[in-house]
Design a protein that fits this description.
Number of helices: 2
Structural class: alpha+beta
Radius of gyration: 21 Å
Order of helices and strands: HEEEEEEEEHEEE
CATH class of the largest domain: Mainly Beta
Strand content: 25-35%
CATH topology of the largest domain: Immunoglobulin-like
Bound molecules: dinuclear copper ion
Largest sheet: 5 strands, mixed
C-alpha cells in the first residue's frame, strides 16, 4: 500500500496532538488531583421534599464537629433554597445539591464550585473558599464579609436568566 507523504505527515501531527491531550489529562489528574466525580449518589427527585436530607427544614448550612461546613441546597426552577447562606472562608466546605425538577447548574465565581445538578442525583462539591479570590467577584461589607453571586449555568427554562442567589463569605477567623 502506498501512503502519500502528506498523509504520513498528518498522521504524525495527529499522533502528537493525541499524545499531548492524553498527557495533559494524566498530568492534571496526578499533579492537580483533577478527577471526574468518583462516587454516584442517587435520589428520587420527584419526592425530594420528602427525603430526610432534602426536606425543607434540613436545608442550609451546618457546622460539623470537625469544623467543616456542610451546605445542603436545592436548585429548582427558578432559584436556590434556602435563600440565606453564610459560609466561612478558609474552611473545608461540602456542598450537597439536588433538584426536584430539571437540570440546573451551580456556579460560584472566585471558587472552584461549578457543577451540574442532574435530576435523580446528588451533586457533591468539596471546596475551601479563598477569601482573596471571592473578594474580587463579590461585594465587600464593612464587617469584612463578602456577598458573592451564585448562578445557575445550565439552561433550565424560560426564566433561567433569573435563577441566581447570593452567598455571604465570612473572613477567615
Ligand atoms: Cu436553573 Cu438555569
Amino acid at each position: 500500500m502506498q501512503v502519500a507523504p502528506f498523509e504520513k505527515r498528518w498522521t504524525g501531527i495527529i499522533g502528537i496532538m493525541v499524545a499531548v491531550m492524553l498527557g495533559s489529562i494524566l498530568y492534571t489528574a496526578f499533579a492537580y488531583h483533577a478527577h471526574p466525580p468518583g462516587d454516584v449518589e442517587t435520589v428520587d427527585s420527584t419526592r425530594l421534599h420528602l427525603t430526610e436530607e432534602f426536606r425543607e427544614d434540613n436545608l442550609g448550612v451546618t457546622t460539623r464537629p470537625d469544623g467543616s461546613v456542610l451546605v445542603t441546597l436545592v436548585a429548582h426552577r427558578y432559584g436556590f433554597t434556602p435563600k440565606h447562606i453564610e459560609i466561612p472562608a478558609g474552611k473545608p466546605v461540602i456542598f450537597r445539591v439536588a433538584t426536584p425538577d430539571v437540570l440546573h447548574g451551580l456556579h460560584i465565581p472566585g471558587t472552584n464550585i461549578n457543577t451540574m445538578v442532574v435530576p435523580g442525583y446528588i451533586s457533591v462539591v468539596n471546596a475551601v473558599i479563598n477569601y482573596d479570590e471571592v473578594v474580587k467577584y463579590g461585594e465587600l461589607a464593612d464587617n469584612g464579609s463578602v456577598t458573592v453571586p451564585v448562578f445557575c449555568n445550565e439552561f433550565c427554562g424560560l426564566n433561567h436568566h433569573s435563577m441566581w442567589t447570593e452567598v455571604i463569605i465570612l473572613p477567615d477567623s
